[in-house]
Amino acid sequence: MTDTELDALIAERVMGWKLLVVQDPSRAINFGDHFENWVADNGDGPGMYAPYEWKPSESIDLAMKVVEKMGDWDGFDFMLTHQFKNHIGMRSWSAGFVEYNDDGSYEWHALGEHSTSPARAICLAALKAMGVEIHD
Questions:
Q1: Interacting residues of 70 by C-beta distance below 8 A, sequence separation 6+
Q2: CB distance 70 to 97 below 8 Å
């Protein structure tokens, strides 16, 4: 899966946004014949991010917005670990989310989603915790 595809899935399935495409001839000089923004699913408020700006799979700052959103959903807690060398001798990041139940028990979601970057590991784990299976 490309970073662009992963970023779009995060926007839709985790952040709850939709891609709003606006046909606006007055903006044609800067954007061609249309422009796009990820916006809140209810359509209220200004655009959140243009697709070229929304890169949580590449930016740790944006990936942390995903972590914050996961905490808003169901009170997911977050874990990120770094292995200096994994089983094939490469650096690896692993992310996971844990959800606490009313009775005090907990359930791990997406523990062990690995990637060579922390931002991508966070995105993969968030999607898995939301029930989206990605084969990366």
A1: 14, 76, 78, 97, 126, 129
A2: yes
Task: Give the angle subtended at the CA of 14 by the CAs of 12 and 16, to the nearest 5°.
Answer: 50
Q: How far apart are CA 84 and CA 115, in angstroms?
A: 12
- Which stretch, 29-33, 56-60, 92-96, 101-105, has highest mean pLDDT? 56-60
Q: Which of 48, 23, 41, 43 is nearest to 33 (CA)?
A: 23
pLDDT tens, position by position, 59-95: 999 999 999 888 876 667 888 888 776 666 677 888 8
Backbone φ and ψ of 68, nearest 5°: -60, -40
- CA–CA dist 134, 75 (Å, integer): 23
For tokens 């890169």, the residue is: 55
Pairing of strands 34-40, 77-83: unpaired
3-state secondary structure of 51: coil
